Protein 1
Amino acid sequence: MCGIAGFNWVDNNKIAEITETLNHRGPNDTGYHVDNSVSLGQKRLSILDLSDAGHQPMFYTPEKGACSSKYKKELIANSKTGIVFNGEIYNFKEIRTQLQNKNYVFTTNCDTELVLAAYLEWGTKCVEKFNGMWAFCIYDKEKNILFLSRDRLGIKPLYYYQSENKFIFASELKAFYKAKIPFEINTDSLNHFFIFSCTPNDNSIIENVKKLQAAENLIYSLTENKIISRNKYWKTKFSEDKISENEASEQLYKLIDDSVKKRLLSDVEVGAFLSGGLDSSIIVYFMQKYVKNLKTFSIRFDYNDFNESAYAKIIADKFETQHFEIAFTAKDIKKLIDELPHFYDDPFGDASMIPTFLVSKVASEHVSVVLSGTGSDEIFAGYGRYSEYLTLKKLKKQPAFFKNLLVNIYKQRNPDKAAKLKQLLFTKNDEELYFKLLSDLFRGEDAIRPNLNKIKKLEKYFNQNSILNSVLNFDQNLYLSEDLLVKEDRATMAHSLEGRVPFLDHRVVEFANSLPVNLKLKYKTGKYGLKKTFDKHLPKEILYREKQGFGVPLKHYFRNELKDYAESIIFDFKDFEYFDKVIVRKMWNLHQTGKADYASLFWNIIIFNKWYSNWKY
């Protein structure tokens, strides 16, 4: 795993400066290449082929193999292509054999060299052959272009900036801050952040800094100084193929098994995040078959409603892993709140980033690679909100008097839930219903005044052959890639730890998306087919307990341990006025009574204030 950066002009000092901002992503080695057309930089985290042969930027000729900017410099002038690469290609050995049969020479055991050779053989279509995660830039010297690509699900990040005659790319936004591009807030992204806690689609928080999206290729012409091509090479596709429950289970078992095995490819030690939920338990079940003395890592919360550590211990004991449990309290938030904006440099409000950050820190002290269960919920329908959405869609069609009656009944028991139910039942359309079900932040819209028209662009994902597949399509394309994968990438990379996600092998995703919906959600049971597949392999208390989620007890903290601390950050901030403090103050007071829960809104305000104070120049 690595950090990469580059631009389309010559500046030795500048490429060193912006590459250095990515040191946490790859502290083992640093490399630069500057010639008449480009400046390239890379920070390397050594996982495969720990020798100097894997140094980047790397150049390649089919007759003589790889040469880096550090060694065999005399060969660089004769090479056709160079690369800075972040990621892993898990099937690189199979592809390398194909290319060796075509007389391509290989001099390293790195997948980086394979990517260059594959590009020379198949052009930009080479990425369609890769099984893995990646973000890279290939410098094609003959065509005088830069070819940027990102993996199918968006596991690895890549940003770019284009002005009239400048083009910059990098793994993280901090590289652009160091380059001192204009610091202008993108209002669409700010709007999305206060609804979804992240910045979905291709915009970042900074105007004109774009994200290369998942499964996207981009070609920049160094001759014309402009982007000449930008296209998707893979898309999520849904069908409902005819398949029996037993056959689906058999195929699914084999696919996940093979995906885990492929992601154990490493020259350093590999461990696992273990939450105690079904998904991470499945990953550990397979890993313990292949990894001796497997190390697992989990979090213990100080509020029982959020604590799954007992279930993690059940799996750790069953498979005899060397288990590490990290305690999490409100004090950890105060310790980390000033540090987080450095790593989450595109504002990010999913509060579970803090326990993920902490567990990554501990894991990095014992292993260099971790596998997690991320992605399973979005492809196998694991969230309770999926069945809730189907129920609400039916209720939404009822007459207004019936919906008001239902709300009034709830109001007697729980005024806060009644207010949310009213908001959901009277939404304009089904897409808005799901957005508001997904995000509590709509409840603070009077304070933030989000532009709901901007969100309509996201409705394009609700176009599948069933209601369930439509929301899964939305979650796979936005919630997964823009929230969960961002959270895990930044948390692990902050500690120079490589995170791998077996459920997001594209073969697993494609198979899951082809299953009948009743093998995903059946009788309000999410992940039905996945649970049946592992019914004989995992304890029943893991398989069939209610999904808990990886949340943080913010609503409790803001009423108790963090009340004064949070209040000062929210209301003393004056650098950037973007919300109505009078309304927020009323919401804060109501939250303190316990009659309402606005914790998500308060948290996002805190995160944005800290981000702005940290990065504004």
Note: Residues 467-493 form the longest helix (27 residues).
Protein 2
Amino acid sequence: MGEDYLSTLNLLDKLLNINKEDSLVLCYYGEILYNMTQYRKSISYFTKAYTIDPENIHNLNRRAITYCVIKEYDKVLSDLDKIIQLDPLNSSAYYLKSLTYYTKNDSNNAKISFKKYAELLNSDNILAKIQLLHLEYLLNKNSSKDLNDILTKIDQIHYSSINEKVFLRFIKCKIYIELKEYSKARLILDCTPYYDGFESMSYFIQDHPDFWSYLYKVCEINKNDFTKFGIVDEFSKYMYRKREVYFVSNLTNLNSELCQFQESDISSLSGLVLSSKNEKLHLVLPILNFIYTYDYFICKMNVKKILSKDCFIKFTLNGNYRDYMLKHEDVSKLEGLGWIEYQTSIRDLHYDGQFSIEIEINSIEMQIEYIRLSYSSQPIITHFTNISSMGYLFPVYHKFFSNVPETFKDKYFSRKEMENLLDLKDILN
């Protein structure tokens, strides 16, 4: 979703100037900062909202999740206990509590909270059932019998949306890997397109070297020559060959001058990114022989700071034939969002087209991790949570929790407006 976070924050600031103790606006402010991966700053706003309205369960829930991301687990449990005191039937609090205890290696308390969550579960809520199955998988990873029972339960669920289908396949894939039924896990991977949980699955694969070795062998990765692409490590070869993702750090193996732009980033899939720093960055990618003809060019990048109003990011396709330039007004909408995928239309590009990316000197402090192509449209801006910091949270956990406090609906806005990051201009005017 391509939210204009900075504009929304500016508008929320105007509301806070009217009433700086409006707990609902403070809570929503924290939501936006969380989405921008400014976790500690978001906690400060959730805490301000809590001080004003200590019975706002939604606010406590969001602060607990944020504490979970920054690994302050005792504070997570403290907030969840507050929620349960206010609402003893709050099932999501018990889910997060079980997950937190599991993360702390406290299996007894994890199972106690799991049982309570199962008791409170609404049988008609498919997404809640999926959460339950994911948690059940975590608590029974060492029991092949229990894992097979979970597979049976998954097959009995009648999903009604693509998202639900993908979530269930994600859990099945992880279970097959635990059971060492690698051919079944691979089949799921091969049939699953790029989606919200993709990065989490990629991290998971890397953490299971036996499965990784199997994939590398059975996909016959080494039968391909990657020299002209600068790809040398096995993971990058797999991602290019099977997922059609090209890490721009591979370019340092083709042009040693680019090594000065390379830096480590633990939140990235490959662990390496290229950073514009204070130099002009001009990346000329090799001709990427992807299998299909695609309509969209997607770049994963992190615009940290704009240094000049003369800044630009230029995507050039097929030499000088055509280019797409993001100028200051466009780049300013990306600043501070953290890692995002930015999509550009390339409907007339053939499968063997060549790309280049150019960033003007001393204009933008930003990082680039990879590029990929797509034949289906997605939002122009897709935000990425830092998967490496998520621990055992379900990779698309945000879909299981409302992003909007119920009390917002009557106070200012309709739910539809809020879910789409409403335009507050109408309210302020």
Note: Residues 5-216 form a domain with the Serine Threonine Protein Phosphatase 5, Tetratricopeptide repeat fold (CATH 1.25.40.10).
